[in-house]
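Good morning,

Attaching, inline, the backbone tokens for the sequence recovery test we're adding to the shared suite. The designed sequence is right after.
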């Protein structure tokens, strides 16, 4: 299988890009797949879509790293670097990203879902960081992103036990943002993505930038960043369209251009 076929990209006419992991049988996140995913993120960053949906298909999301590539510290350094490069690049995609999670999202699969802005899970979804069962720790961002999502104590318990977190619990602790029936997963993900892609996407990208950068700094610095981006957004055509539409027709009637 060529690297290009390991991750498929469908840029739809509605402005949504669907990224599908395509590595039978369990979408193992090999270094080859991670390299291809990194390439995909470069295009989605330089030429942003209105919104992005990342999925592993109907049966599962991704069962984790390719264990056959594991070895000693040297291999660990290479694999960890590949994970960090690819998943940090996913997190840095300027568009709103949605993970559509069906079945297992374990280890690197869970880490990939957490690199997205929003996670929609099917009722059959299962999350987890089971690296402890191999005598190792998460190496694709799990020790940092999981506590930021579910809190430090809960994250440490999930990682220290390696237990699986089913969809209902994932929703309760914030690891999943929505849970839907399996046959409705992609419909709901595309519905949300289409709604966002048809909106003021320049503003959406600035919202993402403000939140992501602001969460990594103190409140005063975050507020200063917000003020800077609030001024910046008024350079967009959509801001002029939105304000004029509101004054003439009221809220929610604007037809944005994405510029």
């Amino acid at each position: 299988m060529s690297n290009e076929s390991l991750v498929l990209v469908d840029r739809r006419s509605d402005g949504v890009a669907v990224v599908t992991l395509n590595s039978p049988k369990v979408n193992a996140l090999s270094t080859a797949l991670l390299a291809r995913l990194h390439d995909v993120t470069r295009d989605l960053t330089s030429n942003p879509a209105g919104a992005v949906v990342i999925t592993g298909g109907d049966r599962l999301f991704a069962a984790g790293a390719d264990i056959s590539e594991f070895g000693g510290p040297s291999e660990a350094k290479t694999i960890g670097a590949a994970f960090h490069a690819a998943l940090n690049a996913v997190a840095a995609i300027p568009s709103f990203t949605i993970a559509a999670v069906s079945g297992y999202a374990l280890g690197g699969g869970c880490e990939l879902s957490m690199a997205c802005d929003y996670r929609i899970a099917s009722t059959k979804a299962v999350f987890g960081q089971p690296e402890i069962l191999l005598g190792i720790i998460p190496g694709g961002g799990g020790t940092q992103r999981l506590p930021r999502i579910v809190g430090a104590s809960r994250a440490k318990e999930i990682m220290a036990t390696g237990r699986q977190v089913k969809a209902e619990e994932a929703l309760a602790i914030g690891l999943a943002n929505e849970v839907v029936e399996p046959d409705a997963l992609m419909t709901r993900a595309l519905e949300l993505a289409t709604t966002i892609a048809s909106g003021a996407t320049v503003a959406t990208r600035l919202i993402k930038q403000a939140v992501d950068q602001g969460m990594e700094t103190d409140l005063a610095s975050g507020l200063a960043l917000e003020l800077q981006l609030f001024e910046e957004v008024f350079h967009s055509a959509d801001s002029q369209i939105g304000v004029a539409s509101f004054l003439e027709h009221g809220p929610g009637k604007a037809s944005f251009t994405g510029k």
